[in-house]
Recover the amino acids of this structure.
């Protein structure tokens, strides 16, 4: 049977290759990798391709995704600070969770006691990016309190950077993570097993050899799936950046003007559109829209195609300058960025195929 469009085609060998590449670079520096699965909704074939590449745990922001992965024989890590209302499922479905709130950890301990288990946590500290994490000056006091909880095992400390505030990991902030680890060892007697130094934005310090030697864990998503480090947005040499391809089918192709005819009001999203007059052009409509993709984050493999715009279900392309003679029924391929990948993997209208 033929493919149904729109679709996302995933090259699983490229995912495994990228994972192996990054895992081995990290291993040289004594760092283990949690593979982050949230951007592709923990789609099982992709998760398996990552596991084949040598990650030591799967990490996701959402419990629903951890539930999907239950059958896989690998530790499950909950990345997003848990909701108190989800405590039961956090204990049931995650082996390790990242935390920053005493009240939540207290609840996790209570639920773990009922389920007869000890729950492992990694304490998140905020080093300036201003997303999650304990604010440094009260970390000793909070940690002392947490250590009194009967069913919690604090196995590590971690930080997250370049997510909200765009703060780049460097010797100052990662050095501070190491200082906090040492301070907690001296003042509280905790010797952490895991020092988790961030996400794909910390990789450049692995590659240039400047990552502090105490850091022994990273959580990596984007670098594996898109072959890109995220501190400077650079392609990682040796990794594929086209493991994911979004494909849509042409449903109309006609010569039309480049400027709409009549009085211009608002488009489908309430914006007033502007048009440059390029004369008559060859325009293709692809059955793909904002309900499936983020059009600012998709790039035709045919470099002579220009994306003109999109509504919810229609993507409009200028194919005038393409060397290829496109017809109705032809399929157009696009590379994606992180935001577009997220949208497409989340859209139930986008079929998923693996090769
Ligand atoms: C999403 C996320 C990651 C992975 O980030 P990438 O940039 O995709 O590598 C790591 N840690 C936390 C806490 C996250 O939320």
């Amino acid at each position: 049977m033929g493919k149904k469009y729109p679709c996302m085609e995933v090259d699983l060998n490229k995912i495994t290759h990228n994972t192996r590449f990054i895992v081995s670079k990290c291993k040289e520096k004594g760092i283990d990798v949690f593979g982050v699965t949230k951007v592709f909704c923990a789609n099982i074939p992709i998760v398996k391709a990552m596991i084949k590449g040598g990650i030591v745990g799967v990490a996701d922001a959402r419990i629903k995704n951890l539930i999907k992965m239950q059958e896989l024989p690998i530790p499950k890590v909950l990345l997003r600070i848990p909701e108190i209302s989800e405590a039961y499922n956090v204990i049931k479905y995650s082996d390790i969770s990242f935390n920053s709130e005493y009240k939540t950890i207290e609840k996790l301990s209570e639920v773990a006691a009922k389920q007869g288990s000890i729950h492992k946590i990694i304490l998140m500290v905020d080093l300036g990016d201003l997303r999650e994490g304990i604010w440094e000056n009260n970390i000793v006091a909070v940690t002392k309190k947490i250590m009194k909880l009967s069913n919690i095992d604090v196995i590590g400390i971690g930080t997250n950077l370049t997510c909200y505030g765009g703060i780049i990991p460097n010797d100052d902030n990662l050095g501070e993570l190491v200082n906090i680890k040492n301070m907690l060892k001296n003042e509280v007697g905790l010797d952490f097993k895991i020092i988790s130094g961030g996400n794909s934005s910390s990789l450049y310090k692995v590659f240039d050899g400047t990552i502090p030697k105490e850091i022994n864990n990273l959580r990596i998503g984007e670098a594996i799936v898109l072959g890109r480090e995220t501190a400077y947005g650079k392609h990682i040499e040796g990794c594929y950046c086209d493991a994911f391809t979004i494909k849509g089918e042409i449903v109309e192709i006609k010569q039309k003007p480049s400027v709409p005819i009549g009085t211009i009001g608002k488009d489908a999203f309430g914006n007033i559109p502007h048009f440059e007059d390029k004369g008559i052009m060859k325009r293709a409509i692809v059955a793909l829209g904002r309900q499936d993709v983020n059009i600012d984050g998709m790039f035709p493999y045919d470099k002579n195609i220009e994306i003109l715009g999109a509504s919810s279900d229609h993507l409009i392309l200028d194919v005038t300058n393409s060397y290829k003679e496109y017809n109705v029924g032809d399929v157009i391929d696009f590379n994606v960025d992180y935001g577009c990948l997220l949208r497409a993997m989340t859209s139930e209208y986008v079929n998923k195929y693996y090769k």
Notes: The pocket of pyridoxal-5'-phosphate is lined by residues 36, 38, 61, 79, 160, 199-200, 219-223, 230 (CB under 6 Å). The chain is about 30% helix and 25% strand. The chain has two domains: 12-226, 244-354. The longest strand covers residues 244-257.
